Amino acid sequence: MSNVKNFGATGDGKTDDTEAINHAIKDGDGLLVFPKGSYRITKPLEIALTKTGSYGIAGSLGTATIVMDGPGPAFRLIGNHGGTGDPGTVKPGVWKNERMPQIREIAIEGVHPEADGIELTETMQAIIDGVMIRNANHGIHLVKRNRNVLIVNCHIYHNRGAGIFLDGLNLHQINIATSHISYNRLGGIRIERSEVRNLQITGNDIEYNNAPRSFPKLPTEPTAEIWIDTTADGASVNEVTIASNTIQATESKGGCNIRIVEKRDSSRPPGLIAITGNLIGSQENNVHLTNCYGVTITGNSIYSCGNRNLLIEDSSLITVGSNHFRRHTEKYGTGVRFSNSRDCTITGCSFLEEAPKEQKSRASLLELAKCQRIAITGCTFTNGLPHGINAKDCHNVLITGCTLAETRGKPLEKAAINFAGNGSGNSINSSSVQGKTSTERSAGLTIK
After folding, report:
1. What's the rounded Cα separation, in Å, for the pair 123 and 377?
2. For 131-176, how does the pLDDT look when each residue is reduced to its tens digit (9 = 90+)?
3. For 347, how many CA atoms within 13 A lie in the half-sphere containing its CB?
4. Which pTM value belongs to this model?
């Protein structure tokens, strides 16, 4: 093992140990070990895997800290893999010298305002395990091209940029699991201008990733715990699972817990995204989808929105099933809105607006605006305000086997169901409706 102290590093937190650590990288044996201590550096520690061969970095069970007192990442791992995840595209030199570089059990603290934590470029099977990164710009920054990345058991906490930033990246296969990703100003996990396949986000605590909560003195902008933006030319993100996470925040202007905004590519439609079994709450919009196709949202507890629990715009083939929608405190509300969307299903969900002390201006529990072919089946809507279901300018909306109830001592709903505007082919079947149904003749609603 290449103990950095054997190459002249002091670990006293004051001395610039950059040169000594680079000496260990250049002349060591490929396993860079940091004993307990605080190692101040002023330039990135670059590991060029084509030169070093297989490489590992170990921080002595988290007792070692890298203090980044210069611009750029504390560690930059550079590979040369230009292929895909297919084994046949991996060159022999990559298997021999570059596969599975690892950074384990070390802390990184930013001191310089342009310090980052870790940067990966063109790596194959990189593993970041048990790492703590705080007070940096971006925590973990993936650029250019990477394959088969594992980020597990990490604490990515209180950084000025994004916790994990996939930035202008071509990436296949990444697992982000069992980590705390919190108080990062520009989002927890942020994806922009990238082509990504097989993204798994599982078993994490992702919370409070916005400027007002993390860095109130720095400029703010709309962000999210998980932010996926594919509107740039050539960008696409497919085959995504967001499962079994706690994803919560405090409300911020334009903020979301999960924000996905797509740009349709007719040659290869977006989609194949599952949001399942999460606890999601306390933002302006909890889940906000724009121009999405083929998204499944099922088995989640989604609570407390400043605007909407779900906001679905210009989207199609959205499956919403067996979710629980409610508010957590008097300050927040409950509501789902679909606008200009089509071919969607809402099944087995419960919607609850707990009784306010007085009638306030709130969103209806389910709003549909300019939608087509929406199937609503087996849902319960309790104490809507002003409506349980409110539809305008919709066609072929089918409500079947639903229960709409008003349980407040003094009823506050204007109507359990309201259809307005110009529509056709809308119907209510086999449903229990406590309260009136309000409909305009032009809305095209039949009740059976």
Report:
1. 47
2. 999 999 999 999 999 999 999 999 999 999 999 999 999 999 999 9
3. 9
4. 0.95
